[in-house]
Amino acid sequence: MEKYGAGSIVISDYDPNWPALFEQERARITNALSSFALAIEHMGSTAIPGLPSKPIIDLLVGVPSLEEAGKRCIAPIEALGYKYLPEYASWLPGEMFFRKGPPGPWTHHIHLMEPSNPRWEAFLVFRDYLRAHPETAMAYASIKRALAASSNDNIAAYRNGKTIFIEETTAKAHAWRAHATDQAARTGVRRC
């Protein structure tokens, strides 16, 4: 069983300081990686206004080459207080994963990958869909709270329990984005 840090999984009410905490960390990572970081996005539940979450700021960091990132990024990111977890590559292919904070509960995660990785788009479309659909975000909150209560400190059970909801919602989100893109193309409106 993969345990969750220093105790039971806790889902906290939304904290309006989470976006500011993300911005602070984005500035630190930008400074550490300079132009090698192509993009840094706030992802995960703390990026969804109003959504209860484990209080961990998830950062999605895009790099031009994962192979090159293995040589250039580990030391600068670890100098910011993160720990690189190479063993996570077995279930997060094409990604380098870092976490920061005491040995649980953690405060920040970095998911470092090439933006061409299909998970990059999946993370962002899921986030954007939940931002635009608060009723779906609240359904997700209910699932997360129930899983946290039943999983105790088994983070794998918690994570796996969310899989079906995330996959189904991501599929809806891709259709939603495609529809919005089609609508914009038909009306001549450019999306940013």
Word description of this protein:
By secondary structure, the protein is of the alpha+beta class. It has a single domain, classed as 2-Layer Sandwich (Beta Polymerase, domain 2). It has seven helices and five strands. A five-stranded mixed β-sheet has the order 1-2-5-4-3, sandwiched between helices. A hairpin with a 7-residue loop joins β4 and β5. α4 crosses α5, α4 crosses α7 and α5 packs antiparallel against α6. The longest helix has 25 residues. The chain is globular and about 45 Å long. It starts with 17 loop residues before the first helix and ends in a 5-residue tail after the last helix. The model has no long low-confidence stretch (mean pLDDT 92). It holds the Pfam family GrpB. This is GrpB family protein.
What can be said about this structure in brief?
With 192 residues, the protein is an alpha+beta fold. Helices cover 48% and strands 13% of the residues.
Low-confidence segments, ≥5 residues, pLDDT <50?
none
Indicate the mean pLDDT: 92
Helix content: 40-55%
What is the β-strand count? Answer: 5
Which second-level CATH architecture applies?
2-Layer Sandwich
Radius of gyration: 17 Å
**Main sheet characteristics:** 5 strands, mixed
Give the CATH level 1 class.
Answer: Alpha Beta
Q: Mind telling me the CATH superfamily name?
A: Beta Polymerase, domain 2
Q: Helix segment count?
A: 7
How are the secondary structure elements laid out?
Elements: H1 18-33, E1 39-43, E2 57-62, H2 66-72, H3 74-78, E3 82-84, E4 96-100, E5 108-113, H4 118-132, H5 134-151, H6 155-161, H7 163-187
